[in-house]
Design a protein that fits this description.
The protein has eleven helices and twelve strands. It is α/β, with parallel strands linked by helices. The chain folds into two domains: 181 residues, Isopropylmalate Dehydrogenase; 139 residues, Isopropylmalate Dehydrogenase. Strands 3-4-2-1-5-12-11-6-7-10-8-9 form a twelve-stranded mixed beta sheet, sandwiched between helices. Strand 6 and strand 7 form a beta hairpin. It starts with a strand and ends with a helix.
Length: 321
């Protein structure tokens, strides 16, 4: 039975411990018993002490130890600690990568429904600034460019075709095959997770869709991709115009697909605030994370909002089998 949820404490130089505390105290004991954290016991204890929060923590060796305990159970990852909120980048990087690798390994276990990683600074993963989505896709050895980032809240979601690349690289990265592969994964996984065949709106790349000029990405790449998706009986529509879609038209769709990260994430976050969660589609297990960053500037100020982490836990709990 897949009834265990793994939560990574993520980047140590962050508000993650405050968010973990605020979310933890809102959970019922039956749910707490299913949750295992991947972190460092001493680090969490020192961080909780520093921000004047108190949770009983127990160190466990595996995801079967302490099954009946509602205490915060931690599978320990070694890390050198001096100041608990000023961990050197090299140590923080080793800690985060080791945490992700441990979570990935444990997800091969039939007892784990999926993982939630608290916020991570992408520079800790590699020099290319790719995110957890790409890292876990690589670990899972899935077919290149078939993993999908989905940002979801309630009955609406958005998804970027390209993720963590600079804006001047987007046009170079885009091609018909990439769009088709991503939307096929999106359609398949959305049906599996949300039990619904999604209606997918696909944005153009350029302002006003470049007035559909012959050499535009809309004519050369996006429209041919949409036509192919329609032939595959995927409910794909577009290209929609970016600057007006999020006024009202987005309500007609289950998912809006954009060509680059901020094209869809910026308006989505303006609409949903802290209610959204970040999902990776295409893996053999579920992966979610709160849809916000490390917010290191808020450490110790008791201002961090835990709602996105709670939504991640609710999502995982709904998918327990």
């Amino acid at each position: 039975m897949k009834n265990k949820i793994l939560i990574l404490s993520g980047d140590p130089n962050s508000v993650n411990s405050e968010i973990i505390y605020k979310a933890w105290i809102k959970l019922n004991n039956s749910l707490k018993k299913r949750i295992y954290f991947i972190s460092n016991c001493n680090l969490l204890k020192k961080q909780f002490k520093k921000i004047k929060k108190n949770i009983k923590i127990i160190k466990v060796k595996n995801i079967t130890e302490g099954e009946n305990s509602a205490s915060l159970k931690v599978i320990n990852i070694n890390i050198k600690i001096t100041d608990p909120f000023k961990v050197r980048k090299s140590q923080a990087s080793k800690f985060v990568i080791s945490s992700l690798n441990t979570a990935h390994r444990l997800c091969q276990n039939s007892k784990v429904v999926g993982i939630i990683n608290c916020a991570i600074n992408k520079t800790l993963l590699n020099k290319n600034n790719s995110g957890v989505t790409e890292y876990l896709a690589s670990k899972s050895k899935i077919k290149k460019d078939t993993e999908v980032m989905l940002i979801q809240s309630g009955n609406f979601a958005v998804s970027p075709i390209t993720t963590h690349i600079n804006i001047n690289q987007v046009s170079k990265k885009l091609n018909k095959k990439l769009i088709i592969n991503k939307v096929i994964t999106l359609n398949k996984c959305f049906k599996k997770i949300f039990k619904k065949k999604p209606k997918i709106g696909i944005l153009g790349l350029n302002p006003h869709n470049a007035e559909l000029r012959k050499k535009s990405e809309e004519i050369r790449i996006i429209i041919p991709a949409i036509k192919k998706l329609k032939r595959l009986r995927i409910k794909a529509f577009g290209p929609l115009i970016s600057d007006t879609t999020f006024i009202e038209n987005y309500r007609k769709f289950d998912v809006i697909v954009g060509m680059y990260h901020d094209q869809v994430l910026a308006p989505f976050k303006a609409l949903k605030k802290f209610e959204a969660i970040n999902l990776t589609l295409g893996l053999k297990y579920l992966r979610a994370s709160p849809d916000h960053g490390t917010a290191a500037d808020l450490i110790g100020k008791n201002k961090a909002n835990p709602i996105s982490l709670l939504r991640c836990i609710e999502f995982m709990n709904k998918n327990i089998k």
